[in-house]
Here is the input.
Amino acid sequence: MASDVMAMHGAQTDRPTWVETLHAWVTTVDHKRIGLLYILYALLFLVIAGIEALVMRIQLLSAHNDFVSPQVFNQMFTMHGTTMIFFVAMPILFGFGNYLVPLMIGARDMAFPRLNAFSFWLSAVSGFVLYFSFLGGSGLYGAGTAPDVGWWAYAPLTARAFSPGSSSDYWTIAVLVSGFGSVAAAVNLIATIVCMRCPGMTLGRMPLLAWLYLTMSLMVLIGLTPLSAAQLMLLADRYLGAHFFDTQAGGSATLWMHFFWIFGHPEVYILIIPCFAFMSEIIPVFSRKPIFGYPVMVAATVCIAFVSMSVWAHHMFTVGMNSYANTFFMITTMAVGVPTGIKIFNWLGTMWGGRIQFKTPMLFAIAFLFQFLIAGLTGIMMAAAPFDWQLSLSYFVVAHFHYVIVGGILFALFAAFYYWYPKVTGRMLSERLGQLHFWLFVLGFHITFDPMHFAGLLGMPRRIYTYEPGRGWDAINLIVSIGAVIQAVAILVFVVNLILSYWKGARAGKDPWDAWTLEWSVSSPPPAYNFASIPTVASRRPLWDVKHPDDPDSRYE
Amino acid sequence: MIPELTSIFAPASTPARSIVDLSFFVLTITGIIFVVVAALLVYAIVKFRGRASDAGSEPPQVYGSTQIELAWTVVPILIVVILVAATARVIHAIQDAPQPPSALEVTVIGHQFWWEFRYPQLGIVTANELHVPVNDPARPRPTVLTLLSADTDHSFWIPQLAGKTDLIPNRINRMWIDPDRAGVFVGQCAQYCGTQHAKMLLRVSVDSAEDFDAWSKSQQQAAADSSAVVDGRRVFETAACINCHTVRGTAANGRFGPDLTHLMSRATIASGGADNTPESLRVWLRDPDAIKPGSLMPAMKLSDAELDALVRYMQSLR
Amino acid sequence: MTAAPALSVPVTPADNASPAWSLPDRGKVGMMCFIIAESAIFTIVVVAYLFYLGKSLSGPTPRDVLETPIFYTICLLSSSVTIHLAVTRLKRDASLSFLALWLLTIVLGGLFMYGTAQEWRRLIYEHGLTISTNLFGTTYYSLVGLHAFHVTVGLVMLAVVLLLGLTGRVRVAQSARVDVLSMYWHFVDVVWVVVFTVVYVIGR
Here is the structure.
C-alpha cells in the first residue's frame, strides 16, 4: 500500500514529496491523468500560439507597418497554424476523450494504458521539437529559424532549393511524430469503445460522446496517415534525392496538395466531431430533455465521416482542375452540409420544449450553435466553386475557418471545461468569472472575425505581412486587431478562473448538474479505479433511470 | 490613372460578373437559411427558458420524431440540388468557354516575387504591369492568359476581372478576361510563395484599342539608345545586371529578373513595391531590401556616382 | 432491490463481465485499427507510384530493368501459411511444432528480404537505378522499401517470440497475443500482393 511505503521512508506526513508527485505524473498510465496532461499541454500551446496571433495582428494594424520583418511574420503564421491544429486542438480533444470515455462507458481505464502514455509523450515531445526550431532551425549556417512555409507546407516551396536549412524539417518531423501519437491514441479509443463497455451498454445505448469519439478515431486512422505518407515522401525528397514533389524532375506540386488535403479536410472534421460530442452531452442536460433523435445523430455523424473523405479538393478549386473535377467536389462539399445541418436541427429540437438553464456551459453551447451555423453557411458559399475562385486564399477563408475553429471548436471546448471541471477537480468554476469570460470572448470573437469576411470580399489575400493603403483594408484590419486583444483578455479571465476555482471553488459533489451519464455516478474527482464495481445499464441515460425509477428511459428505447 | 478598389462586387469583366451573379443567388439562399434557423434558435431560447417555478420538475421527455427528421432532411437536400444546378452552369460557362480566334494571348510566368508577361502574337516581353485591350462586345477580343511558374506556386488575382487561378510549376493553367471598360485594375499574388509574397503586386491597364496598339508598338521596339547615358549603361553591363535582366537591343539577355527594355513605361517598380520615380529607383538599386526585404535581387554595392549614372540609364529605357 | 434497477451491481464480486456480455478482444481490435492506418499509408504511396508511371523524364523504365521475383514472392506468401499453422499448433499447446513452424516462417521471411536485397543490388550496380535517378526510381524504392521496412519490423518481432519460445515462455496462455502478431504478418503479406501487382504486373 502506498501509505505503508511512505511510513517506511520515514516521511513526516502521508503526503508525497514533490519529486514523488512529479514521478507519479510522468510515469502515469491512468487515463484520467493522461487526459489532464494532454489538456494542460494544449492550454500551454494555446497561449503560445495566441501570442503568435497577436504578433501578426499588431503587424497588420496598419498598412506598411514594420512591427516585425516579413521573415518573422511568415514564421508566425506558419507556427500559429501548425501549433493550433497539432499541438492545441488534437491534444486537447484527445485529452477530453481520454478522461471521459472510460468513465462514460463504465470501464476502469483505456484498452491499452501504456500505449496511452506513449501516445501522450510522443505528442508532447514533438511539440517541443517544433519549437526548438526557433533556436536551431537553419542548422549551422545562420541564427535559428522556425519554419515559414505555411502550415500546409506546399511543394515546391519546401524543396531544398526554396527552403534551405532545416526549418521546414522541424515542421515535417514534429508533425509526423505527433501524427503517430494521434494514430496510437485513436487505436486506443476504438479498442476501448468497442471492447470495454460495461454490461448492458450496447452500441445503441452508449453516450453520443462515445459514438462521436469512435467515429473521430476511425477518421484519424485513415485521415491522418496520408499526411504521414506525404511527409515521408517529402523527407525522401529533401534528404535522399527523391523527386516526389520535385517539379524540375517531372514531379508534381499538385500531388502534394492532393495528399495534404486528403488529410486536411478530414482533419477539420476530426476536430469538430468531438465538439459535436460535447454539445450532444451538454445541451440535453441544460435543456432537461434527452437528445432529440439519437439514432439520427449517430447516422448523421457516420454520414459526415464518409462524405468528408470525398470533398478535399474544394481546397484546390483555384489550382486549375477541369470543370468536371471542380463540379464533383462542389457537389460533395454541398452534400456534406446536409448531415451537418441535421445535427444543428436536432440540437434545436433538444432545446425545444425544454426548460433551459443558462449556466456557463449552456451559454457557450448556445453561442456555438449560432456561430457554427454561420460558419457552415460561409462554407456553403465557398462550396460554390466560382464564388470560391474569388474567396479562396483571401481573408474570407481565414474568417470562415476561424469561425469554425474559434467560434465552433473553442466555444464547445469552453462549454466542456465548465461542464466537466467539477468532475475532474471536485470544485465548481466560478459562474461570475465564467459569465465575464463568455461575454468578453463573444465580443472579441465577433469584433475580430465578422469584419474579417469583408477584407476578403474587398480582395485582401491571406499570408501577407503587409498590405497597400487605400484598398479599403486599413480600418477593417484595425478593428480585427482590437478584437484579438479583447479575446486575449477573455482567455486570461478563463485561466484565472481555472486556477482560482481549483482552491476556492464551491465543492461540486458527484452530480452538480443533475445529469444522466455514468461519469456523474462516481465521486468528484473520481477514484483511481473509477467504479467500485462495474455497473450494468439498461438505457442511454442510466442515471435518469436511477432518479426516475417510475419512468425509466428503458421503457421507451 | 488611379486604381479602383478591389472589391469582388465591382466586376469589370464577364467571369467576375458571372461570379457576382452566382454569389447573389447563393447569398440569398444562405441568408434565408440563416434568418430562419437563427429565428428558431432565438425563439427556443426565449420561449423555453427555465423559470424558477420549474424547479424540481422536468419537461416532457421527447426522444425524437421521424416525421420532423424527414422534413429537415428533405428540405436541405432540395436546397443543395438547386445550388448544385446553379453552380455547375457557372463552372462550365467560365471554364469551358470556347476561345475566339481573335483572342489576345498572354503567357504569364510567375517568379519569386514578380510577374513576367509575354505576348507571343506580338513579340512583346514585359513585367509586372499587364496591358490588355478593352473588349468590345461587337467585335470580341478577350485576353486569354496561359499561366506558368518558374519556381514555386503563385496565384493570379485581379478581383474585378476574374476569380483567381494558380500558377504551378510543371503545369499549364489557363484563364480568360474580357474587360468591358478602360481603367487600371490592381490585384496581387494570392498563393503564398515565399518571403515577399505580400509585395508581388499586379497591375492591369485596360486600354482602348488605339491606346493598346500604341503601347504594343512601343513595347516591340528595342531599347532606346542614347549617348547621354553611356556611363550608366557601362555600369549596367559591368555590375552583373545583364546576368539577370534583359534590355532588348543590348548584350543584356538575362531571364532571372524582369525585362527592363521599357522600364519607364511602368508606373511602379519592384512589382508594385514602390512608385517608378528616380528617387525610389535609386533606393531600390542601392539596396533592394530597403523596399522589399527578402527579394531575390542582391545589392550590388555600387558607389554614389555609379548609382546616379545607373539611374539615368534606367530613366532612358522608355 | 426492486425489479431491474437501472444501475445494478453485479452479484459476483469479480469485475468480469457476466458470461452473456461479451465484447471483441482488445488485441485483435487494436491490431485491426493499426492495420487500417498502415493500409492508408500504403495506399497513398501506391497512388504516387501509379500516378508517376510513365512520367519519368529520363533514365531506366520498369520494363527495362524489373525482373519478376516469383520465387521470393512464393516464400513470403508461404510464410503466411506457416505462421497460421504455427498459431494453431500453439493453441493446442504443441510447442515443438509451433516453434518449428515459427522458425520456418522467419526463414521464409528472411529469404524474401534476401531476394529484395539482391534485386536492389542488381538495380543499383548493373542498371544505375537509385531513388534519385528518376521518378521511377523514387517511387519504386519508396514503395518496395516501405514494405521491406515493415517486413523487417515483423521479422524482429517474430525473432523475439522465437527466443521467448525457445526459453519455454510461449505457451497456450500466450497464444492470443501470438495470434495478434500473426495478423500483422498476414497484413504484410497482403500488402506484398498489392505491391507486386502494382509494380511488376500493372507497372510494366
